[in-house]
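Quick one: structure tokens for this chain, please?
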Amino acid sequence: MSDAPVVQPTADVAGSAELGARTRVWHLAQVREGATLGDDCNIGRGAYIGPGVVLGDACKVQNYALVYEPARLGDGVFIGPGAVLTNDEFPRATGPDLSLKSVDDWHAVGVTIERGASIGARAVCIAPLTVGAWALVAAGAVVTKDVPAHALVVGVPARRIGWVGRLGKPLIQQDDGTWRCPESGERYIETDGTLALEGA
């Protein structure tokens, strides 16, 4: 089996983009100039990866998701169908005189998604912000501020309603105050609004 990336004929991948081993780019997806995709990534139909965006290994960007520059995704990140990572704090097409704005008229700000985190279908992450490792953003949420590692956030604007483990399952609080994954049995320690794997 070849380690070469696979690009469908209808996809548009810039010559300066870098695709890692076994990465797949599906029909009608676009990967722009200078983007870097790690090994074993999967870019779904109609997805957009902006110029200079960086994806770690084993990322999955589902159909029609939009990942605008200068986004940074860690290893194992999941971006659900139709999700959007924005890059403009004060969007305008023109100046007050209706003259068209150019790339020099704005400063791109990015979304950072850390290792193992998941962004649900049609969720919107409004830059600049960071979604912490292994966090889970629910489908349809609008994220306007940083999300702690392992947080489960929902709603508009998104708010934390619980914690999730590395398997993405909601954690159950124990009598001793720790949090346990019902599937893996992993335990987590909460300290001042943050969560960490016990013994890590």
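The mean pLDDT is 96.
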